[in-house]
Please model this.
Amino acid sequence: MPLNTQILLDNRPVGEAVASNFKRVATETPALADGQVLVRHHYLSLDPYMRGRMNDSKSYAASQPLGEVMIGGTAGEVVESRHPKFAVGDQVVGMGGWQQYSVVNAAEPGALRKVDTSHIPLSAYLGAVGMPGVTAWYGLVKIIAPKAGETLVVSAATGAVGSAFAALAKARGCRVVGIAGGPDKCAYAVDELGFDACIDYKLHPTALSLSKALKGACPNGIDGYFENVGGIVLDAVLSRMNAFGRIAVCGMIAGYNGEPLPMANPALILINRLKVEGFIVSEHMEVWPEALKELGTLVATGQLRARETIAQGIESAPEAFLGLLKGKNFGKQLVKL
Ligand SMILES: NC(=O)c1ccc[n+]([C@@H]2O[C@H](COP(=O)([O-])OP(=O)(O)OC[C@H]3O[C@@H](n4cnc5c(N)ncnc54)[C@H](OP(=O)(O)O)[C@@H]3O)[C@@H](O)[C@H]2O)c1
Model:
């Protein structure tokens, strides 16, 4: 059986996560039992939620146990099968974790999904046509529920979720404004992702300054906000929300190292009769088929062309992950294994 390089969580971060929180080991992949499949991972998905799992605190999901392979979505190929529904060469997506191979109990519901790579690249099943894409779809369709002509704003606009959000919102006839870090990301948002405008939050160190920039980009106010960041970005957007606006709270990455993220003026929720709703995409599996169908069509027809940042080799995963938390990624962060 092949040798498998794995990355384990070795110890928990105190404040910012660091490379020494992880440990690399090599083990032999075990022989397969009946019903099992051996998958060679081609891509590992790196996602912000992993930072939360590294903590040992109460959350919506159990924390990552120490000494075990880091959790993570993977896309790869079946290299050995003892399950009748999977054959060698099948392209599959699962939760294989930060390692080169995984042994999967293929009969377990949802453990392994075959994917068609004839029109959609394998890696896209971890991004636009995967969990991040469905996340954008859920917040947009089920919480913001926009009407054509409304103005929507999304933060972390050029990332895996934000880029899918833009394509889905444009398809519904909305004006879409992004908030992202740096001139390159903002140019990409407008030139390639179809945003109507994008604001570089790094030019706006205060909520007041960012709010003024939002006024220029959203002359009719903001009807829907897809929140990925928190802090002064949320304060600025709140100050520009229209009455009966909707806010889908998807992430608050500015606070993932444990920093408090106070809100400057929560009274605006009352004054503007806002709907504010948090969600976790894995708790809404019922929407995945419909969402993946729309996202798959957008990608296959070239209407959603999201960039990927691809680190090379399993050993690069920790640094690539730490970079993602600092905005070093441009689009979906993957590791090619
Ligand atoms: N609720 C759910 O079920 C669910 C599911 C998936 C993802 N999410 C959340 O969705 C958000 C986006 O995820 P993603 O996978 O698409 O990641 P991503 O946007 O591809 O990457 C994270 C981005 O966050 C931005 N960022 C990092 N630190 C920041 C800070 N302090 N202030 C402002 N921006 C910061 C960076 O972009 P800039 O360079 O533009 O700052 C970075 O590139 C995250 O908050 C994630 O936790 C939630």
Observations:
- The chain has two domains: 3-127+307-336, 131-282.
